[in-house]
Structure formats: structure tokens, C-alpha cells
Records
---
Amino acid sequence: MKLRGYMSGFGNEFSSEDSRCPGSLPEGQVAHKKKKTTHPQVYYILQNNPQVCPYGLYAEQLSGSAFTCPRWLYRILPSVKHKPFTAVPCGNLTENWNEVEPDPNQLRWLPFIVPKSTEKKVDFVAGLHTVCGAGDAKTRNGIAIHVYTCNTSMVDRCFNNSDGDFLIVPQQGEILITTEFGKMMVEPNEICVIQQGMRFSVDVFGETRGYILEVYGAHFELPDLGPIGANGLANPRDFLCPVAWYEDRTVATGYTVINKYQGKLFACQQDFSPFNVVAWHGNYTPYKYNLNNFMVINCVAFDHADPSIFTVLTAKSTPCVTTYSLCSKPYPAQCCVTASPFLTSGNCMSEFMGLIKGHYEAKEEGFQPGGASLHSIMTPHGPDADCFEKNSVAELQPERGLRAFMFESSFSMAVTKWGLQTCQRVDKSYYQCWEPLRSHFNPNWKPSYRNIVSQRKLYSTITQHSTVI
């Protein structure tokens, strides 16, 4: 499906109207006319909410922050026109972090299974499964990580998250997301953000799978670049938001709006499509981003740089403290060469990783596209034994064709019952990948000329392969 284009920028003040209704975005009201002059002067006051909107539309405000930051939608019928909400089954979507006992072990999941459409039709909402998380939507402090596995499009139903923002990372199959602001086609290797309170529906074109990071308290922003300077990481102009598109459609059988509220699902009925916004303006929008546009700051000499050099988006709990971020690493067109593999005894962040495509060099066999891993706070982790032995002596070469991502958080995340048991995708042999690690300790080792020459050759090799291609 060919869309009508996008507007570029991150956090910009946008305005858009469907080309079928020119002038639907209010421009102003006549405030004063000077009469009895050869050239009468007309002054306008720009208004968000005129007494009568063009085309007889309803003005509606959608805000993700203080009301001092207005964002306006102009729609055929207001969103308040619906029957009462009633509770509906949540399926495998949950905010209950106490279903099972805490598990500090390294966890790895085999690729999550996508149901066959011939066996059972599952749309985006029905295919949501919570893997892990922490915090509380009521206090607006915390996160949840979900996967979605679906095979059919949403028909006459949409989803609305009152709890927080959805950052969606497709892994298999493109998705067409219809929002109140317009349409976005999002493919694997792209990400998109649907912010709190925005209604959206998802069309799929076959068996589809991906990951979702939900944040309760803050909106995503671009990370501070610090010593990197003006150029690097994700550029604001590469983020795309949709242009206005509406449908004036009556649904006699009822249109279902599903609302996620305080971790539970509720549904209401209305007799018209919610995607009836003819025009809108503001800086609170859905948006998408192509990970190929990321300007990587890569590691080409020695040691292991912090994942922050790969941060695409971040959300802060307190100033200068990253609570949750999306890191994407490394990149197909870049070199990523380091002097040696390393393992860590743990760190103060939880790291949930997924693989979109390619082979992850740290665990080439077990970490597969469509699967995931979780290394909780202070849990030791790192390259497996094969990777350590191989890369300790290998001639270093650039790594290409990989697309992995990390959701990194300062929260200590709990794994759900679905994530540990019901999905039956936990790789219980994961710990064994480190068991062959052996001691290389030699108390009689002494610095020698041969050691020094060897190190110099190693760094010479690194330098030769450090050119960005």
C-alpha cells in the first residue's frame, strides 16, 4: 500500500489536514477591520477552538503533558461519543509482577511462536504477551516489555493505551498502523512510537512478530550527545510522522475501542470509525524511524564501549538517569571491531535483548531472530565460551549484517508467568554456554619482547579494519 508521505522531525510543531478537505485546519477569526479606507486591513487571531470549526468539525484536545502545550484534533464526531467501558479478558497482557518467584538467572528465549492463521486467527491486541516488567501504571512509574505474535488484521476495532507509550519493534512482517493522525507503514528494521492516549489499529500481511517496550512515566526523547557533538546517533530529521487521513464511516455492527487502563483491558462500542480526524496540529504525534539512518559511534580500537553509544531513544526517570532506552547495535554498513571479548560480573541495569536479523557474535547459535534474552541487575553475563576462545585469537574483522537491539532499564524487572512457563520458549540450557570457560591463568607469565610485538600486531590489525565503509 502506498501512503501519501510523512513529515520529518522529532518533537516538531506539525500541522496537517487531509487534502480532501482544504482549509479544515482553523486559521483564525476576523478580529478587526478598518473601514472607509482604500485598502481595508483585516487582522486575524489564530484560534485552536473557534466558535464554529470549518466543515462542521469538532475541536478536541489531546495532551501528553501539561495543558500549556496544546495539541488539537479536528474530527467528524468526538471521541467521547461511545457506550460505557466494560472489562474484557486481558489474555497474556499483565502488570502482575508477583505471579512467580523472582529469578536472577540469565534467561534466553527461543524464537516466540507465531500462531498459524489456518489454526487460529489472532490480531495485534489478542497477540500481546507480557514477558517482564516493573513498576506501576497507577503511579506512572515503570515499564513493561511485551512481544506480539499475530496473523490477522484488526477489523472494526482499535487499541488505546491510557497507561503509557508503546515503542514497537517489528521483527517479522510489516505492519500498517492506522492512527488518528494518519497511517504509517512500519517494516522490520524500523521502529515506531505510539504515545499515550492515541488510538490505533494494526493491519498485517501474514504471520507477524515483534517486540514492544511500554513506558509508564515519561515520553521518549533523543539522548544528550555530550562529547559526541552535533552529529551522531539518531538525527531528528530522520523521524517521520504521518499526514492527516480520515474515514467518515458508520459501523452498524459496532466499532470496538479497547482501552488499556491501570494494567487491565476494557472495551466500549461506538457506531463510527475513530479515525475521523480531518486535520490536526501540535507536537504530540506518533512517529517512526528507520534504524539504517542511525549514525553509529563505533568501537574500533580496544575495550568495550558502553551501550549508550548505540542509544536511539531514551526516557528519563530523573535528570541524567536513563530509566529505559532503545539501543540498536551494530550496523550493517559500519565496522565494529574490538580487541578482545569480555565478560561482566554484572551491572546496575537490566538488559533485555532481541535479534531482528543476522547472527549475534556473542552467542551465535542460541540467540536467534525472534527470540530474546534478559540479564537482570547485577547478573553476570557476556560472550559464551566459544565466542571467547575464538575471538581471543582470531584476526579481527568487521562484523556486518546484524541487527540486534536492547531495552536497557534501571528497573529490576520481574518475569511473568507467561514468560517463564506458559510460552514454553525458555532455553533451559542457556547457562551451559559458559560452562566450558576454562582458566588461562599462568602465574609464571612475564612481559617479554614477544608479548609486546604480539600486542602491536594486534592493534595494527585493528587500525587496518577501523575505516567506516
Note: Helices lie at 385-393, 417-422, 449-464.
---
Amino acid sequence: MIRATTAVLLWTCLVQLTALGDTWGPMVLKGWPSRETLSASALDVKLLPIVPARVLPPKRVYKNNGYLLISCNGGLNQMRSAICDMVAIARYLNVTLIVPELDKSSFWADPSEFEDIFDVDHFITSLRDEVRILKELPIRLKKRVELGLIHTMPPISWSDISYYHNQILPLIQRFKVLHLNRTDARLANSGQPFDLQKLRCRVNFSALRFTSQIEELGKRVVNLLKQKGPFLVLHLRYEMDMLAFSGCTQGCNDEEVEELTRMRYAYPWWKEKIINSELKRKDGLCPLTPEETSLALRALGVNSDIQIYIAAGEIYGGERRMASLKSTYPNLVRKETLLGADELGFFQNHSSQMAALDYLVSLESDIFVPTFDGNMAKVVEGHRRYLGFKKTILLDRRLLVELIDKYTSKLLNWDEFSNAVKDAHANRMGNPTKRLVIPDKPKEEDYFYANPEECFHPSSQNEPVNIIQ
């Protein structure tokens, strides 16, 4: 009985093992999966295209001389150019750069951090063959900073790289960590090593990429505009902060003049307080008003049915001041009119992120027209030159206000006025030109980021879109 029972059990086990062998045998003994038993889905997976891994530049190996902390000041584009300068300086001093701190105490009071506006990981990795960039100091050095064992200073404006080698580098080597608390316009425009100039461009045009959220929303705005044809971006800098800072009150009533004056005195770092608005305007130092802008665009022959995207914050005086411009160019749009409140909700009270959207749209426009040569106007101008000398109308404000005053006082008829404006701007369309260099007067010479000619490709000129009659 025992032998019989054992035989039955063994036979049963053999049958089960045989059945399992038909399923698992080929997989275990012949490798997984076998050619015969590959399913259709497995075959599909196997044939999917392989996504190539991102190729990063090799890390640059060098002796680290210390760490550089920087606190940017100003608006988005003022900080943008400063970051480019500081990366170049860190590279040439062989120091480690900590991701820049953005200005949160300026007029706009934007609480955004670097990573809220720029793709911080791309910024770090794309430049790793030039300079080592960290998100924060190592712990041992962070404790020194918390104890106040750090040297803080603003560098001298418009200095060349020898100043940083001779005066800044020894401080870094001595203190290990140096904090530069003002970084705008601290590196000279011209006369710098060619490789340094190229690196400034590389940071500006490649490494400083906006976050995916900002990039995607910018593309959406551009697509909405392109669906209706060519479009012009008007950087209308007739905003409260600019008028208060510059003291320009053309077209304002007495109550508005008083409000702007109060605001100017409220900011102690705005050093100029008593300003003659009329004289400043005649010298071309005021942003054009919406009324003056309307006349200038008409005189230049810009089609009245063109889409005009207003790249600016709230225009001072609101609809009342925009009435003349809107009557001449009814297709005025803003990001607030193109996008829903839900799409812009994330960016509310974040002026630098809003400015980033305007920046992206400005780059893609058929024509870009700034009404004042502030930081955004200059940096966008230079970026459009880099992209192929895209048409940028650089208004001669000093001449324009003179011609406008003659026209409005009937000293010129319309044809005389229009021809004079066109002649004056024939060579002010963002075409290739040499950067003006004035030794010992860096504030009066051409700004590097408005015309970074060391970085241009000779054959990169675009065919302009004709939206001017």
C-alpha cells in the first residue's frame, strides 16, 4: 500500500511539473522572453524608439578660489544682465557662484526666487564647463555667513575684468565667501576679452531659460497673436513708477503731477527730486506718452489694422490716456485680454514673471517698438539682433517731440511731419551697426546687451515682414 500510494503521488507530481514546464521551462531554461513566446505587446515595447539621454557639457576642473554670493537689484531685465556679468566674473576668477538672489525690495516688491522665473537646473548644468554653480553654500560656510563672518560690498560700476582680478579676487581668497550686494552695470561694456564677451551672451541667450510654465504660456500668447496675422509689440513705458522716477508729467493733470511727486520723494534711493518736466522732455529723456506714440506710429506708416500687443504694466491715467492710441489702432491687446484669469492667476503680484511673459512675446513679434530706452528695451533689442536683426524701431525721442510740437502747433503739415519722421528713423530699425564706445564715459556709450556684436553670426539677417506702408 505504501509503495502504491507513493507511486500515485509521484505520478501526480510528475504531471504537474510537466504542465508547469510547458509554461515556465522556455522562460527559465532558454532565457526570458523566448523568440516563440514573445507577445505582441512585448514586441511593441521592444521596438519603441530610444530617447537619447541629454548630453551635458563636461565639468570644468579648476582650483576653486572661493565662493561668490550676489544680490541682484532692479527689475527683471536689470537683474538678467547683471546675472550674465556675474557668471562671466566668476568664471574668470575661478570661484564658485551661488545661484543669485533676486531683488524683493524694489518698487515692484516681487517675492519671486530665481527658480520661480528661470530654469535653475538648466542654468547650472548648461554652464558647468565654464563655472561651478551651486544652489546654496556648503554647510560649514553657511554657518559662517549666519554668524556674520562675511564681507559684503558693491563693486565699482563699469569696471573691466582687471578690477575683479586685482581687487575682488584677493578679498574672496581672504574671506572665502564674498557677497556683492549690487550687481547692475558693474562690468564694462567694451574692451573686455573676446571669450568673456561670448560667455556673457551664452548666459543671456542660452543658460537663462525661463521656467517651463512661463515658456508654455508665452508660446500660447504668441500663437494666439500669429493666428490673426503679423503683430507689433509696443513697450509703452508710460507707467507710474517710470513717470515718478523720471519726473515726466506731460499730459498729466495737477492732481496726477502731485501724486507722482509724492511718490518720487517717498523713495530715498531716487536721488533726483526737483525736476523740470518740460526741459527733460525736450532733451528726449522722457518716455513717450500714448498720444505721442500714436502720432509716431502713424507717421512711420504702421498699418492701422495691425495687432499691437502692449508689453507693459498698468498705463498711468488708464483708458483716458489710451483713448487716442486706441482710436488710431483699435486692435490693441494685452496678456490680460488674451488669457483667462485662471491662466494668469499664478502670475498675479509677481511683476517679474509677468515681465518674463512680455519678454517672450517681444522676441517673437514682427516689430518691436520701445517708447523709452530702459532695461527691457535694451535687452530685448540686443536679443532680437542676436536672433537675426529682427526689426526693432528705436525711436529718437528728442527729435520726435520737437517734430510733434511743430505738427500740433501747425508749423508742419502731416506730409512734412511724416516724411521727417521716416527719414530720421530709416537707419534706426535694429539693423547691424557698430557699438558706440566712449572712453571714460560708459553711461553715454552703447550698452553691451543692446548690441552684443561680438556674438552675432554674419549671415543671420531675417527677411522683415512688411506691416509698414
Note: The chain is about 45% helix and 5% strand.
---
Amino acid sequence: MDSKGNPFSFALTSLASGDGGSYGSYYSLAALEDERIDKLPYTVLVLLESAIRNCDGFQITKDDVEKIMDWEKTSDEQVEIPFKPGRVILQDFTGVPVLVDFASMRDEMCRLGDDPDKINPMVPADLVIDHSVTADVVRSESAVQANMELEFERNKERFACLKWGSTAFHNMLIIPPGSGIVHQVNLEYLGRVVFNTNGLLYPDSVVGTDSRTTMINGLGILGWGVGGIDAEAAMLGQPMSMVLPGVVGFKLYGILRNGVTATDLVLTVTQMLRKHGVVGKFVEFYGRGLAELALADRATIANMAQEYGATAGFFPVDHISLEYLKMTGRNDETVSIIEAYLRANKMFVDHDEPQIERMYSSCLELDLRNVEPCVSGPKRPHDRVPLKDMKTDWQACLANKVGFKGYGIPKDLQEKVVKFDFHGQTAEIKHGSIVIAAITSCTNTSNPTVMITSGLVWLQGKLVSWALRSQTMD
């Protein structure tokens, strides 16, 4: 947008680089000289910066900017604001219909006698092909290659359409099959954290056609899931109308004990937030505990926003975020620009410096040292049960009335055993037997530590099974 038509063009400031040059320009929040801004949550700052940068007096007005700056009052009044995200992310199941719609718009341009090449996304759109993989081949070194070949054969027509789209449209990137799940690719590769578009710097923000888009909040990128129509509108440069949300501050302090996993932490956080009530709100994590919380653990918590009901669970950018960017291949210059911009615009958290106490709609806190190993269920993720109480809880669930914490099994049937043949061997199951256990959620696949732990548990199970079968054969 032409900054000359922006009433906040006076806030456009040059960002100096370390060598005396300039990284580019940005809309400085400090230049507004409004003391209300200093205590706004980081999530609200992202909304504010977008409104200032895109303010044109038509789609986004000065009154909209004022509503956001006055968040402490307006967040309780259910006021609506326009928001333009920095980009859109799609996966193949929802992305193909979007691509077809854009192709239809090009056909209509041809019918009207105009140039079809004018139809392109106005904001960057990334499409990751990841939802069509079926594991036909397993337990083989060639499993990945064999499954990929089957995938290409089954989806030949759809992939041909996507291949065309990757060259036909500007401002659209299509990630081919076999690169990983959309949310992991977003975290490790697509996430910009700070955009540099023709010398204009601004925070990365994203909406996606998947409820798990929220995982990106672990990297300090504000994002959440939307429907296909909303995604298309955003791609066409239309602002999203949203209720200015309340923000729940969640303070973390202490450090996780040895043996406590990200899964234990996320189940504890989910239970607390479900009890507190965060539907339609942002959750913003802060506190000294973040300095010791790995980014993979943050992503695991952010991914679970759907379970605790929030629009997003946000972790502001700090040194842990920068280290992750370097680890995942972002070059030093890019990371330097990200840090310089966020520090200049008061969006970076330095745990070694005094922190400004920010305003929140309400607050929770958790001492990470008190998180203990736990499981969820038997039916809902927020029905957290400490591991030490699992046996007692399970027995109670068997007898309880049928519901979320009950199966209604009569007492005389609770010890029932059923025998059957398995590969020529006699086996038996009873209530509580583990028939199948698997990790299929991107909540866990985002976290290497949890994945390795699950692999070790699986291996231990195989060894125990092998030992028991050997004893039977002997």
C-alpha cells in the first residue's frame, strides 16, 4: 500500500543495521507516543501494528486503530476490528478447492476479455501437500519410497492441478509431497517471524485452513485456523472481521523436573485453561519459566489451543526462538533482522532485562516444578490423571455410570478375561489391556523428545512381548 495514503505514515521509521546501513523501514509503535501501548499484550501489539500499517481510511480506519489501542476497555465490549494477516497457509484437502476457485476467477476474467494473470493472491499463500499419505507399506526400509509412489499414482490428477498452480500463480508457494506435515513445515521452514517485503518490515502472522495452525504460535507468530472462504478472502487482500479478544496471561516459572515430558506439561496446562475458560480468547504465556522451555515444548502447548478452547496460545519471541531459527536453517542475517526489528518495536522478550508488567483480562500461573507425569482420559484430553493415580482412577471409571469418566461395567464382569488365538499362540485380553497404542497427532510429532520417548516405549513393549513369547515356546 502507498504509505502516502496512510494517516500513520509519520510512524514509518528506518531500522538501522549494525554496519551503519539500514535493514529497511517499519511502522514504529513508539512513534505513536501513546502510553497505553506500553502495557498491551504482545498478541494485541501484532493486531495493532497490522492495523496501523494497513490503515487506508476505508478497509481499516483510524477509529479501528483507536479501538485496538484502547484494548483495556474495548476488549470487554465485544467490538469488532478488521485484521489483515501477513500470509495464509493451506494443506492439500482444503487448498485444492481454493486453487480451483482462483482458476475459476481466471476463467471469468477471460470471459470478460481481461488479463487472467491479474488474478493472484495479494498476500503470500503457502500450500503444503501432506494429507493424502496412506501407510500401505510398513516395517520396511523402502516403506517411505513405496508409499510415496502409491501416493503419486492415486493422486495424479490432483497433483497435476497443484503443479500447474505452482507455476501459474504469483505469491503462492506449493510444497510437494514427502516434505512433512503442514504444521511442522510451517514451523521449521515457512515461518518468517518478521517479513521483509520490498524493504518494509512487519511481524509475521498467519491464518490457515486447519485448526492446528495454532502450533505456529510457539515460534512467536500469531496464527489460528479459519474456514476456506475466510482464507480466500484474506488471500484476496480483504481484512478479516474479528471480535477484539480478551487475553489471558499465563505465567510460567521454575523448570520441569527430570522425567517430566512436554505431554505432561500440556495436559496440565490444558486442564487449567479449560477450567478457567478461554473460549474466543488469546492465551499469552510469559514469565521466567519461558527461558528454560524448549521451543518444541512451546509448539506442543500452542498446538493444543483447540483442546483448551482458545483462539491461540502465544509465546513471544525470545532468545530460545532465535536459537531455533538458526537450528532450522535460517541464516544469520535473517535472524539479526528479526531480532533488531522486534527489539526496536518492543515485541522481543529479553529474560535478562526487567520486564514491563502487561495488562491481561485475567491471569493464571504455574510452577513448572509441580508438573508431574500424567495421562489423560479415558475419553477427553482435559481429564488429566496423575500417573500415580492411574490404576485407581481406571478401576473407578469401569464401575462409574456411562459417561466421560465411566463405562458402567458391572462389578462381576470387571475381571472378565477373553482368550483368543494370535499367530498360533493363545492370548488373552481383559478390561484395561493395551490393544493398540500410537502417536498420530501433530501435537506430539512436533516434539523430538516425545517422539524418541514413544519409540523407546514401543521398543520396550516389543522386547517384553518377544520375551513372553519365547517363554511360552520354551
Note: The chain is about 35% helix and 20% strand.
---
Amino acid sequence: MKLMGRMGLLAVAGRALNAVVSVIVFSFLDLLDAVLCFVYKIADFAVDREWKACYCSISSSGDIFARGGRGPGRGRGGRSNVLRLCPATNCLHLDSISDTLHFRPYLVSDLASIIFKKYAAHNVPTQAILEIPSRKTKHRAAPRWSDCDCHTCNSWSTCGESQSQNLYVRAEGNLLKAEEDVVFIHGFISSSGFWTETVFEEFSEAARSKYRLLAVDLLGFGRSPKPDESLYTMTEHVEMIERSVLRQHGVRRFHIVAHSLGSVLALALAARHPDSVISLTLLAPPYFPGGEGDGGQAVMRRVAPRRVWPPMAFAASMACWYEHVSRTICLVICRQHRLWNYIFRLLTLNRIRTFLIEGFMCHTHNAAWHTLHNVICGNTEKMDRDLDALRDQLKCHVTIFHGENDELVPVECSYAVQSKVPRAHLKVLRGKDHITMVVGRQNTFAAELEQIWKNAKGD
């Protein structure tokens, strides 16, 4: 009993220490982000000859502010919308963007608001207007100065118009007369290599002769286009998958395998094609129900609790809360990914997996920042609707995998999905986390996928 009491006291003391240290560290990061905001404005103006606004410095006048003519009008609501031209159909769409882009309460900024009366919760933008680009508009010949300009990251901006508007898709298996197609969608800060360099290598010859395997690099990641003017909303991501995978490759009836962020897009894709999806396999879906009326703030607090421990929570908080700190990280890591690739291969005697570099480093800050907020933090209501459609309208087989030790997306998320879709089969993997649920057990996982597709009977 005494030992249990001491363990309880140590646990309480540990949580208290974590809370105290977290306040100190994140207060410093608040100040650092404010300083970096000024530094990047000067650098952007000096190099690109453009005074670029950011989400932490929206003017109080309510005028148009962002890059490329984007300008949220300010109002009293908690929603933001963007009027955008769909590149696939040349039609206008009113799309929602996350409130977490514009309102992220900090200790330092809250104190500043009292002094300067500059920031206020009711000044969250509610409407955005996007300039409609001309049909003759071409992609920029070069990326922003802080983004990589190598062939992998930027070749799309100088190639033909028809190529530049499509995502990168890796196709394997039966490419001529496949019986069924399988679409693989990777997670946040990843690429198609997460699939092609793991489970693709483990599929049996029977599976490779029956299925066409299509792994896509999402917009802004891997070898896909990384347009600086994009807001990377869920609609943009899904429409680009439809254009680059379904239409480009003539996909009619298909299975979906999706990891983490990809699960959100997979649900939306399935809801838009209810008669085409044969089976849906979700790995660690980031579904955080509840918090109604709190917009994406509740989700952001769950995903990024601003704590220094565990390390995954600290990394998520850095990426989610600090626009300019995360841009600095991308400047150091993503812009120099060729150098890091060389160093890692040298240190590991050329044994490092390519997808570790391509996935974690081949993206832009603009893509990661907007995707994190607009797809993960700002889409609980859309996920609710898509899950309702999956339960009531779709008849496809649903399987969920989740690592028991996942610190980024807790296993409760998958239980919540199963509660919304009771027919879904949930498999919790003992001792596995967000990545090792696939990497390290790819042979077993490939066999599990083959069994799922076989049981689905896509007749």
C-alpha cells in the first residue's frame, strides 16, 4: 500500500512538473514565434519583393490580407469560408477553412491583447474571397525562397499544364487487366513510399496479378504539386485524388487503404462514391467527437495539448500552434532534404529507407500547415456526416487498425469510429504505435489486407 501511495505521489509530482515546464517552454515559444513573424516578413520582402501576411497578424481593419488575393472578411462568427475555383471543373465552390488558422490563444498574445487591444476572439474571420485565376494562369517557375527547388519538389511547376495539375501516383500490380483497384492514401507528413516501400513488397503474386495497386502522394507532399496559393482544404485534397487517381487511371470500383490523415480523406472519398467502394481499411483515424460549438479548438487541444511530454505531444504542439517556428523547422529540414538524405545514407551505410526522407522532408510549410488545420483540426463535423453516410448509405466492408501505444492519435479515436459505424471491425495491435502498426510488420499487414479484399467479394 505504501509503495502504491508513493507511486501515486510520484505520478502527481510528474504531472505537476510537466505542467510547470510546459508553461515556461511554450511561453518562450510564444515570444519566439512573434519574433520570427517579423523576421520572415522582412526576409520575404527582401527576397520575393512581397510583403506576405500570415495568420498571426491579420489586420484589424478587416481588409483583404493573404497571399494571392485571398482575403477573409472579419465578422462575429467562428467559421471561415473560402470561395475558390475548382481546377478540375472550373466551377466555384464555397469551402470551409479551420478557425484554428486564425485564432490560437497564447499566454503572451492574450496579455498583448489586453495592452494593445489588437486581438480579440470575436474577430475571427468568417468569410474568405479567392481571386479567380485566369485559364491561362501558369504555375510559378520557382517556389518560395524558403522551400526546396529540387527536381522532386518543383518539377511539376515547369512541366506541361496537363501534367502539372495531377498528383504523383505510383502504380504496381496488374496494370493491364486488373480485376479490382486498390487506392492507398498516406498520412500527415508522409508519402506514397509509406506503402510502396513496405507492404507493396510483401503482397503475394496472386494479389499482384489480381489487383492494381495505386499509391498517391497527396497535394503538397512527396512528389506531388505543392502550389503556394492553395489552402489545402479537404475538398481540394479529395478533388485532386479524384482527378489524379480515379479519372486519370479509369478507376471504377475500388478498395481504399488509408493511414491517419488519409483516413479523413478516405471517408470523404467514400461518401462521394458510395457505389464504387468495395472495402474501406482505416489505420489510426484521427476522429475526435464532441466539443460541439468549439470549432477546431477542441480537436487542436487534443492533438496538440502544449505539453513537453510525451515527445509526440511536444512535436504536434510545435507543428500545430506555431506558424513561424514550424516554418523554420521546414526551412532547416525540408529545404535541405537532399543533404539530410546524403548524411543519413552515409551514417547508415546506405540502409536507410527512402520513404523516411521523402515522407518526412519532401513537403512545404504551406502544405503541412494548412493540411494540419484544414483537414485534421477543422473537419469533425464533416467526418460526422461522412461516418453517418458510411453507416447508412454504404455497404462496403469496414476494417480499422490502431496501435495500442499510439501517442499521436489515441486508440479512443478508433473506438469512436466503431461506435458510429457498428459493423466496422476494429483490431487493436498490442505494443504498436502510429508507425509500427505497419512498418516492422508489413508482411503480416499485407496478408491481412489480402484477406480483407478477398472477404469483401467485390462482385
Note: Residues 102 and 287 are 22 Å apart (CA to CA).
